[in-house]
Design goal:
Layout lengths: L6 H13 L8 H17 L6 H10 L7 H8 L8 H28 L16 H10 L20 H5 L6 E2 L10 E4 L5 E3 L5 E14 L5 E16 L2 E12 L5 E4 H6 L3 E4 L4 E6 L2 E9 L2 E4 L1 E3 L10 H7 L5 H10 L16 H7 L20 E7 L10 E7 L5 E6 L5 H16 L9
Parallel strand pairs: 1-4, 2-7, 3-6
Antiparallel strand pairs: 2-11, 4-5, 5-6, 5-12, 8-9, 9-10, 10-11, 13-14, 14-15
Length: 439
């Protein structure tokens, strides 16, 4: 169903996206993971869901009185710091404290001596005939039809039948789009949510569904190689991770199973240190942060793009307006402009290309001529030959009176003779001798 981009599929996803709510049985962390999963699926279908919208949706799902104090505490956080990463960290901390409080309460209650005891009597099991009669009277909680229960509902396996025959990998973790790589012992593939990190990428002809921890699915769009910097023996070395699958908006998962299959040995201790060994030597390392095992990786930024000058980025992006460039950096719309400095510069190319030329000033005549004293001439090659074989025509114009004389010529050699004729004619007509013929 998620592979279809029809309006009906989008509508179903939007309903599920806005229908997720945290309950007594569903933890807020699991609720947020489920919302992020639906948001990633909607983004893959072309929907626009930014980080602020995702945070607002998660907060709106915590309407239970149990989360009232958490909501009030979240409102006190400054709006620029209200990101999905911070919200996930706060929810994880709240959940750990809530579980420890509940366990303490149960232990205290069990320590109090009880004075009255009750014994539960086991109910007799119902026969098949009684079960069938009960099903006919009750409605299914999923499709609201009578005759069966939720566990037997045909709508429950509808999505599974739609993807029957397709291979589905298992990645048992998800998260927000970030630079962190999570060491996942349940994933059987490496996964990455940042397309710009792939230096060798091949897109699938059709997205492939991937199952995650909450039994929902995300779509894999491609696979290839990712280059990162890893902390190995206290030194940052550049390495390549092969067969990394791209999930838009998904977390960056580093599969522990793949390294174990390649002969690596993983060692973990109580302090949170995680080290992979190859042939008895320490290799890739990780550490525990907020309940997650974070691999010590850094993204590799291309040296050609590692520039902090605003003028350089202005030229690389096709001479974009400086205000829009700074706005792009502030909103984090692209990756790589985080440390760009604000410069006061003037682009010579933009000044020349975007400016308009001034109008030409009218030229004043330097001298006054009488009719017949100054002539202008021009020889023109005609596009076609006349019936009499003329290919050229000579135009002679008097500057003072604008009187014109036209001579038709078969060759250019006739020009001198026609000029002399024009001079004699204008001199006889005006009584003034020709003083100037400008070139």
């Amino acid at each position: 169903m998620y592979q279809s981009v029809s309006g009906e599929s989008k509508q179903i996803l939007w309903q599920k996206y806005y229908g997720v709510m945290a309950t007594e049985s569903k933890s807020p962390v699991r609720t947020m993971v489920e919302i992020q999963n639906y948001a990633a699926q909607l983004r893959s279908m072309g929907a626009t869901i930014d980080d602020e919208m995702e945070v607002a949706r998660v907060i709106s799902s915590l309407m239970n009185d149990k989360f009232r104090q958490f909501r009030e505490a979240w409102r006190s956080v400054e709006p620029p710091r209200q990101t999905t990463a911070l919200l996930l960290s706060r929810l994880q901390t709240w959940q750990v404290e809530e579980e420890s409080t509940e366990s303490t309460s149960v232990a205290t209650t069990s320590a109090v001596p009880q004075k009255a005891y009750s014994a539960k009597q086991s109910k007799p099991k119902k026969t098949k005939e009684e079960m069938l009669e009960l099903k006919k009277k009750t409605k299914c909680h999923l499709c609201k039809a009578k005759g069966h229960w939720k566990s037997e509902c045909p709508e429950k396996n509808k999505d599974k039948k739609a993807h029957k025959g397709e291979e589905s990998e298992g990645a048992y973790a998800t998260g927000v789009l970030s630079d962190l790589w999570i060491n996942d012992s349940g994933a059987n593939r490496h996964y990455c949510g940042r397309l710009e990190w792939f230096f060798d990428y091949k897109q699938y002809s059709q997205p492939k569904p991937v199952s995650i921890a909450d039994n929902s699915q995300m779509l894999v769009e491609g696979v290839r190689k990712v280059r990162v910097k890893a902390l190995i023996n206290r030194q940052w070395k550049e390495i390549e991770i092969h067969l990394v699958e791209y999930i838009p908006g998904g977390a960056n998962l580093f599969s522990e199973n793949i390294l174990l299959d390649k002969g690596f040995e993983v060692r973990k201790n109580r302090e949170g240190a995680i080290v992979y060994y190859k042939d008895g030597r320490p290799d890739i390392a990780a550490e525990r942060v907020d309940g997650l095992q974070i691999i010590k990786f850094r993204p590799v930024v291309s040296k050609a793009l590692a520039c902090l000058k605003q003028a350089t980025w202005h030229e690389r992006m096709g001479h974009i307006n400086g205000k829009f460039l700074l706005l792009t950096q502030q909103k984090g719309a692209v990756y790589g402009l985080e440390k760009m400095t604000k410069d006061d510069y003037k682009c010579e190319v933009c000044l020349r290309a975007k400016s308009t030329k001034k109008s030409y000033k009218s030229v004043e005549k330097t001298g006054e001529y009488k009719p017949g004293e100054c002539l202008h001439s021009d020889l023109v090659h005609a596009s076609t030959t006349s019936r009499k074989g003329n290919k050229y025509f000579l135009l002679v114009k008097d500057e003072a009176s604008s009187f014109r004389q036209v001579y038709f010529q078969k060759t250019k050699d006739e020009t001198a003779k026609n000029i002399k004729d024009a001079i004699n004619f204008i001199s006889n007509q005006t009584g003034n001798s020709v003083k100037n013929i400008p070139l």
